[in-house]
Amino acid sequence: MKNTIIRYGIYSAITICLLALAGWYLGKNLDYSIQEIIGYTSMVVSLLFIFFGIKHFRDTENNGVVSFGKALLIGVLISLIAALAFGILDVIYIKYINPDFVTEYYSHYVEEMRNSLSEAEFKIEFEKLEAQKELFSNTFMNFFLMFATVLIIGFIISLISALVLQRKPIA
């Protein structure tokens, strides 16, 4: 089980990092909402290794049998590896590759709010945003946010995969 988790976790981590880097490089001139869609799609695609990891364990290492709980555990551990890799990559991206990202995204978001809200609503939302600005400029917070996002999506994919792939021994 350990080898399957490590192998498929590394496959997932490499895939999420390559897709994220490709998305950042190729999509740098795209609108932030399009970049966000590309980012979430990259996460889901890379986390499909959860399904293949559970299937590999069931069919190759465990004589065609896997319980729901064990399948879920395998999937969550695979997604944990991908989440760690993506969290670290995000910190590297924001700190070294594109240190202006947080400022640029913040300015974009403020402008978007200004264009879509009334003046009174904008002031209220802007004050909320200002209160959160320092929190989201924190390196650990950026790591945790990306880590948690991948882990939550990974948990959902693990849950679905465990439901689909569970197989009890034939009595």
Automatic annotation (TrEMBL):
Pfam families: DUF4199 (PF13858). The chain crosses the membrane at residues 5-26, 32-52, 72-94, 143-165. Keywords: Membrane, Transmembrane, Transmembrane helix. It comes from the Bacteria. The keyword Transmembrane applies. The keyword Membrane applies. InterPro entries: DUF4199 (IPR025250). This is DUF4199 domain-containing protein. The lineage of its organism: Bacteria, Pseudomonadati, Bacteroidota, Flavobacteriia, Flavobacteriales.
